Amino acid sequence: MNKKILVVEDEPSMRLGLTDNLEFEGYEVETASDGKEGLKKILDNEYHLVLLDVMLPQMSGFDVCKSVRNAGKTTPIIMLTAKGEEVDKVIGLELGADDYITKPFSLRELIARVKAMLRRTDAASSPVPTDDIRIGKLTVNFTSYTAHEGKKEVQLSHKEFEILSYLFKHRNSTVSRDDLLTNIWGYDESPTTRTVDNFILRLRQKIETDSENPRIIITVHGVGYKMLF
């Protein structure tokens, strides 16, 4: 079955160009031209990946992303932004985006990002422990992509699940930031190790009893992180 991708982009030429190139690569593509239409399609359908522009009419890409995650959908989202400022990228990631790419970008780079994200999604769906696993405050199930603190469901983005799964598989061993960049993001040029640190910070806030003094995901100074289990 072909992978199904939604492109949410208001600029007609960009939307057409992305559609043509993704279809050429063998993907099934649907489109939306504004944020509200995009959100409705994401909530009403199942996609393997969403390409989501930040600057959209009706509803911004940031608000769409936030609404999707609040609804419990873990569909991988790559945000397209014309702004290069780090703060915009961090906001997108904090709202639950899995990746971002800054305009102008080459179609070759975009296709590489899409393929990498879909590969990681497929890998994440490969056999993992099917039982609920207690990690700090959370009870996590890597098969159903769910996390709970007691009876309360805790929302984790697709990327957060990937990082948590990777750390769990390598528990009690040191994992470098470069390991995480290579195995989770799958490329070297972007994002930076700072992005890794931001994700670890968010995971600690959800897992640790005291995120300022972590006992589950600890920092190995100058190297990376270790999950104590």
Which key phrases capture this entry?
four-stranded antiparallel beta sheet, 229 residues, alpha/beta, 2 domains, Arc Repressor Mutant, subunit A, five-stranded parallel beta sheet, Rossmann fold, globular
Provide structural commentary.
With 229 residues, the protein is α/β, with parallel strands linked by helices. It folds into 2 domains: 121 residues, Rossmann fold (3-Layer(aba) Sandwich); 95 residues, Arc Repressor Mutant, subunit A (Orthogonal Bundle). 42% of the residues lie in helices and 21% in strands. The chain has 8 helices and 12 strands. The strands form 3 sheets. Strands 2-1-3-4-5 form a 5-stranded parallel β-sheet, sandwiched between helices. A 4-stranded antiparallel β-sheet has the order 6-7-8-9, with no helix packed on it. Strand 1, helix 1 and strand 2 form a beta-alpha-beta unit.
CATH class identity of the largest domain: Alpha Beta
Counted up, domains total 2
Going across the biggest sheet, name each strand in turn. 2-1-3-4-5
Task: Note the main sheet.
Answer: 5 strands, parallel
Q: Which residue ranges are poorly predicted, with pLDDT under 50 across at least 5 consecutive positions?
A: none
Helix content: 40-55%
Shape: globular
Strand content: 15-25%
Query: In angstroms, what is the radius of gyration?
Result: 17 Å
- Write down how many β-strands occur, each being a DSSP E stretch of 2 or more residues: 12
CATH H-level homologous superfamily name of the largest domain: Response regulator
Distance between the termini: 38 Å
Main structural class: alpha/beta
Count of helical segments?
Answer: 8
CATH architecture label of the largest domain: 3-Layer(aba) Sandwich
- CATH topology of the largest domain: the name is Rossmann fold
Mean pLDDT across the residues is 86
